[in-house]
Amino acid sequence: MSDNPETRVALVVGAGSGIGRATALKLAASGLRVVAADLNDEAVAKLAAEHEDIVSLGESWDAISATECQRLVAATVAETGRIDHVVSTVGWTAITRFLEESPEYWRRIIDVNLMSAIYLSAAAGEAMRETGGTIVLTSSEAGMVGQSGEAVYSAAKGGIVALAKALAREWARYSIRVNVVAPGVTETPLLESQGGEALLASVVRAIPLRRAGRPEEIADAIAYLSSDEASYVTGQTLCVGGGLTMSS
Length: 248
Fold this sequence. Notes:
248 residues, alpha/beta, Rossmann fold, 7-stranded parallel beta sheet, 7 strands
């Protein structure tokens, strides 16, 4: 693991599996020191044990708590001495019909998919106000066009796009860039929990590239927006979905 104080640090929240795990690996491979955080602390500990440039802080982190997000960012700085990039890949949904859902379900969807991004952005912005940095939030193509069976999820993910645009305008003065990656159908544990192959077969026909994405492909987009190659990019949403929203 690099002990160089000049090595930039990325905090990846949701790094226990899927897109978050792929992002942690991608950023570490690009030369960053990565602090991985997740509700599943065992998965993060295993990831850190296998890769010397990935750090686990040794506990579970719940991103739907404002206090936890503040504490996570502070713990990252305490562990590494700095924070330069923050990535949130937190997300969850189920495919259900809107009129069959409960207010409790809606609240959970909003908390996991939108409030977590708000809380983490606030903590990250405060920490990077003097130094600059990047924030990349993950939305969804459902947040761009709306998705049957995911009405409130679509609303929450659409909110992330608007949040990023507003913060990009506010925080340009601090040299903080804020961008969004909106994945389409991606081969992750969440997809498997929602029906796996049956669901995939039903939706892939609408995707121009005729396949689901891989977590690594989403991670590539996140890494780009976090990098100096995107130094003049802020307030943008990059859809990575095989052309699905293009054709909608």
